[in-house]
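Full entry
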Amino acid sequence: MRGAHTGTSISAPALCERLDAAGLLRDDGGAIRVPLLARGRLIVPEGASVLEIREATIDRATMRPDGGSRRLILPRVAAADLLYEDPGAVRARLAAVPFAALCDWLDSAAELLEPGGPLGARVRALIAAASDLADPFLDAALRLNATMMRAVAVREVVDRELAVGSVPGSRLLDEWVEVDAPGWDGPTGALRAVLASALGPGPAPVPRIRALPTLQIHVTAGNAPVVASASALRLLAARGGGVVKLPSGSILPGAALAVALHAAAEAHPAARAILDALSLTYWKGGDTALEERLFDPAVFDRVVVWGAPDAVERVSALAAGAIRTLTFSPRYGVSLIGREALADDAALGAAARLAAVDVLVWNQRACIASLVHYVEGDTVADNATAGSDIADRWAAALREALADADRLAPAAPSRAALGQIQRMRRGSLVGARWHWVGGPGRDARAAVVVAPGPFDLSSHPLSRVVIVRRVARLEDAVALLHRGVSTAGVHPERRRLALRDAVAARGVSNVVPLGHAERAFAGMPHDGMRVLSDLVEWTNG
């Protein structure tokens, strides 16, 4: 069943004409006026009440800064623009929106965002001018931002992640569902029988449950152009309302989503209540005048925060234990390479190429990207360098794989990352052996580093730099894992299956075949959580 439609959906060309007429989402001499969404209203930067974000522009051929810059000009918002006078009434209106109507609206917005269309191409050109993501990654991110909003994808995720037994999640969003489960009275049951004896025993109540909407604040991170859109989609898929704070490093994808959702709603009035409860906006983190008023437990039911430790700590403090908070703190990935991978050159080359894939995830800025490789090999008593030879063999093969990857999807460390690499060479990794892609210093494109001992990953530059450590047994590497590790890619598969339980017992959320760190599926837990299930209010009735 599809939701009701009224009117004709706006086309992407017509939407771009509107944007041109308003002077929005286009580069006018190095200035881009960016619209945002505040409780369903598209707001634009006007007069002196604006915020500016300055971005360095990128030479797409070298993926290094070209010396230029541009300004994103955004409207300034206040907490009053984002709060609700009657949160209970808002939740009731959200609960009345049929899930099918939500899906139809999101499908229309996804059509507007398709990368091959006029709006998609317009936004892609704006993002590319200042993005350090190579074209294959940038294009994949923008395709994903549209694809994950498609009705078929949203329904698949909701039906799996919110399912109870054989009942699909979308039905639990739409109606009270009878639960086929035994029930029992508490101690007051006997008292009820006496106090209300004139009424007779009567039939036992039929238990029913429903997943009801919540009002949420999402504070997102800019490590990838899909994070803000994915977080917003979770809010929408749970048929919730609330505020999504866009990260300063990924404003334009969020603004494009705001424009598409606002325009698509014209033809989907049945979903209007969800748009009216939605804000996709930006403020400078730490704006106490806004944040202390916004994080109101009388209004919001959930807070979702992504990002660096200081951001997670600050936002958690704002929620103050009064608003249920979901945190996606910084984590990292590792790779565990069994001795079988070094049996011969063919096996070594194949395994190194798989491992390189896990290094490349959003240029190592994603929490699933592999930063450390543990390579299994023996130390021979009469050859003190044998263990080092094993690590260096792996490092050389991985360096070759990363060099090939750089030709397919080029990247270059930022100035800050290059500075951090230099500090590591002189300090924490002074005795390490470096295998460079592109050469040391400003020519660096990537590096594989054979470390003589433990390394503090808080100083990792996240720019295709891999730390390699030899272990006598993979079980020794497992003992080093902890909850700060999100993902472990293990090779070969036989060893992964043998170690999977032990790795998971250390708090690692994903234990995957090497080369598959980024693979996902509908209903997949994130950092050990079924996130959509936490974003609805499970109610008995």
Q: What stands out?
A: The two ends are 26 Å apart (CA to CA). The longest strand covers residues 64-75.
